[in-house]
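Running log. JK asked me to keep both predictions on one page so they can be read side by side. First protein, sequence followed by its tokens:
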Amino acid sequence: MKKNDELVRTVAEAAILAALAFVLDLLQDAIFDAVPFFANGGSAGIAMLPIIILAIRRGPLVGFLAGLVTGVLIMLGGFTAISSTWYKVLFQVLLDYTLAYAICGLFAGFLKYTLTGENKKHDLIMILIAAFVGGVGKYLCHVLAGYFFWPNEIWGGPLAYSILYNGIYMLPSTILCMACVAILYVRKNDFFLTTKYINSNEVNA
């Protein structure tokens, strides 16, 4: 029974936090739609934060799946396509939308296994790294999308432009998420710790 309860809690957490990430992403986009520089998409904020928190609590698989759900919801709500060729648009959608949050959750989730629950300084550093690598994972997806689909004639070439364009909003987003997880950890450090193993006595209870 205990094992089933933990599964239900994990699914509930994933659903709630994926939905929260989706709402935060919509709010970010609504704000940055008015910024001419971001005509091709992109926004700064803390939309990654729910996925990063979930990934640290529940690990890379749950983080990946919740991020995937978030990305699909965002894609269904509409997306900005750079190319007019259908197969390029498909590939761009995979990188810019479907996989971006999923890779964020996957990367951040691996740091779950470095938490000790005893050394607070060590755990805080690991949680900060988790938020950072989660942001880097999402950033890489956007950079690859831009590299493949922006035309060669664009300023500086597609790779340089993609690195700059996506970095302008992903760097502050990552820093904001790192600050948020640090504050949350300082105020309630055990929030990031979940039971890693369920012993046989609990399972049979």
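And the second, directly underneath as requested:
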Amino acid sequence: MALVLRQAFLIASKDTRIFFKDRFAMAFAFLFPFIFIVGWSAALSGQGPRDEPLDITLVTQEEEGISLSVIEELSQSVYASVSTRPYDDALAALQDGEIDGFVVFPADFTQKIVSGASTSLGVVVNDDNPDAEAALSGFAQEVAGRFTEAQIAFRAAADLAAQPQGELQAEPPDRTSAEFDSDTAPTVGLVLERVGDVVPFRASNFTLPAYLTMFVFFSAALSAEAIARERQNQTLERLMSNGTRRESIVLGKFIGTAYRSAAQLVVMWLAGILLFDIYLGTAPVAVIAISVLMALASAAFGVLLASFVRSVQAAGSAGVLTSLVLAPIGGCWWPLFIAPQWMQSLAKLTPHGWANGGFNKLMLFGAEAGEVTQELGALVAFAAAFLAIALWRFRTAAQ
């Protein structure tokens, strides 16, 4: 075993020196990903969540009454922009896309409140805007709730006032309404409770790990072409004739590719931190762990690919084809969390999908290290499976 490892590290060292002397390979491994990351980060800048001010449109179908007082009071709020429009104007603005929706006070709002009868506020939104519907419905329920509380309080006060002092009535008096008018309407104010700051979307937090994953696997896949060339010119057979073990060649190619992948990771993560100001999340160690396991899985994938191809041309074509197919499926071209569920499930068949899923959890959604154990385990499984198949299938001679 010691001999196998020693031979493997010597082969890996030789391949690494050749790699750093190859200008095109260096440009493909380091310059191309950087260009992609810069371009897509610039294209996606300004996208994502913003701390937008709350904008509420109110409509009343009353000509006078409590609703007018409520709207006037809400319009003085410093926490939101509250505007009022006639019903037809608000409906036209909604259809034209000027507003997301509006809340309607019905024409009998004051009459129902004064009489103690139940009433409700209307919410008008488009069917395809559930966020606006949820926000405006919550606002309408809060306003209605304030009036319901006031009605209950006035009724209770009126009932108590009607009872003789020191006595309790077995049955409440028969009252259908409380003494309730617009002068005693409850105060309705608007207070914005900020649960947490809205963190601006940083496009590089997605583009850097996504394209880093793509190019790490791309470079590893293209390494199969170099292995196929050594098989074709009988370099591998000469190594075998000099006492090199077949297992040493496989492990050497695996370790050499892992070296190059690790160099890509170091350079690109440093560039991300220094130039793109990326956020590694609350568990940066987990980000590093996923990166290392991704490098190992990609190295094993490169050797696996080389064990199936027979010629240099086939190796080059297979490397490009597999890379361009697996990258979009695995979420390197767009975030998986915006993809349909069937595509998210399909991504789990690729190491790219597990790596990008882990990066997104940690860097975009603030996950802790314990929440990406599945992603870590999946990458270990892919690396072990790829390497095991490569050891079984690898041949040193062209057949």
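Observation for JK regarding the second prediction: The first helix runs from residue 2 to 21.
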